[in-house]
Amino acid sequence: MAPSEPASESDRGPLSRGGQAAQPLFAVGAVLLGSFLANFDSRLTSVGLPDLRGAFSLGFDEGAWLSTAAIGSQILIAPAVAWLATVFGLRRVLGIPSLIYAVVSLIIPFVRDYPTLITLAIIHGMLLGTFVPATLMIVFRNLPIRWWLPAISIYAIRVGFALDTSTSLVGFYVEHLGWQWLYWQGVVLAPLMALMVYLGTPAEPVNRTLLENADWGGMLLLGSAVAMIYAGLDQGNRLDWLQSGTVMALLAGGAVLFVLFLVNEALSPQPWAHFNVLFSRNIGLSLAVILLYTLTSLSNASLVPNFLATITQLRPEQSGSLLLIYGALPLIVLVPLSIWMLRHVDARLVVVLGFSAFAAANLWGTQLTHAWAREDFIGIVVLQSIGQALTLLPIIIMALSNSDPARATSFAAYIQIMRLGGAEIGVALMGTWLRVREQVHSAYLGLNIQSGDVDVARALQRLTGYFAAHGGAQAKARAVGTLAVQVQREANVLAYLDAFWLCFWLAIAALLLVALITRAPPGPFSPTPLGVRAARMRRFGSTAT
């Protein structure tokens, strides 16, 4: 938040209404734990989906809808959580859902009826969706200003940490504890979160004034619109987009609901999330940069682990150590460095360094071949770790520094859409991009085979001779089959090359947008120049005088 003058130590910011708890650090610990739990749960569900399909005896289509229901329901509720916490109090919005979440997490592994499983997955996702959006609110309410930046850094870095450790965690659960722990970790952590919420948040009365003037229509329309659009995009790759009436109905329905949301916010006497909050140049650009961050970071979230799984045929427990050692552990050093830089350097410069690291990692990824093994990705993963540490936190600081305190709830709604909806929609679109590019490259490579290319003929002759020498009765047929497998492998490699190029250009686009963001007004996040620089500035000023 950006008041016109630097805030005092006692000023808790625009979200500081309500009583203070005796142990505010418990509240901050609760929401940070909830943030990690939300990200880990979402990642564990997606990475561990093959194991879940086998455990629940689900077909491919049923498993795909299970994942869509679990994440889409989070998107449905997330934009409204900040408003709900303002009206009903943090204790009611976080404490009670966390206990229900623990119970649902305990039950799900025992369910075998598919309709019941989908219903519980939706409830599970909606409860999970309440954990993250209230984090910034609690940080501003309960911590002194000097602790805002470290707390927000933990909130921001949970994304990269979850991406880099979830693959290893899935492998550990499945191999040693059982797939049920993909859900049961919430049974252990959610009650702890509820206890911390109870100890760290005050017992606030319901804000009946806001409740009486609630914009329920706006909240339902926006959440439903974004959730339907996500579901359409997530299922589009599987159902072939325009060829599916289900996908078209979801996308069209989501678009209509979003238009109705805009109309509702324009006509409502007290709009919940009026879209004019986006008309601020710096706010609009910051939200766009957050969206580009979620897409650029797909090189970490999707491309590296998926390449290792698809091309090198590694299980999560085999590829997860790469992301854990070279992606997650460096964050322990990089996050304090990022905090130090933000205290003394303009956040825009830190963002530039972060996106430059992402661009370098993706450019490096465009050199991969089918021969690349796990260790060949070490440099890329390290650069991605640098990008994670130096990108999302300063973007959030830029957005908060330029936001209007009077529109905090509106801003919270839109940042949740960019944070959660952008990331999940990006994953869905990346899956489609890889599929389409693989088909294109397969077609081009197939043309060379059909035309009788000299290299193809030599390859077939060599393979036929190999199988014939080993007593193969169907040597020629086996040679053709082996060549077809190699063509598909190379088409997949070329598709990943295209994906790395796409992420590279998205990072470049983000750098261009950052260049358009102007300096934020003075506020609690304004950097303090280093002592040497400040002394030089004072000497220069006295000389000029």
From TrEMBL:
Signal peptide: none annotated. The lineage of its organism: Bacteria, Pseudomonadati, Pseudomonadota, Alphaproteobacteria, Hyphomicrobiales. InterPro entries: MFS, MFS_dom, MFS_trans_sf. This is MFS transporter. It comes from Bradyrhizobium aeschynomenes. PROSITE patterns: MFS. It is a multi-pass membrane protein. Residues 27-522 form the Major facilitator superfamily (MFS) profile domain. Keywords: Membrane, Transmembrane, Transmembrane helix, Transport. It is found in: Membrane. Its main location: membrane. The chain crosses the membrane at residues 64-86, 93-111, 117-140, 147-163, 183-201, 213-233, 245-263, 283-303, 323-342, 349-365, 377-399, 499-517.
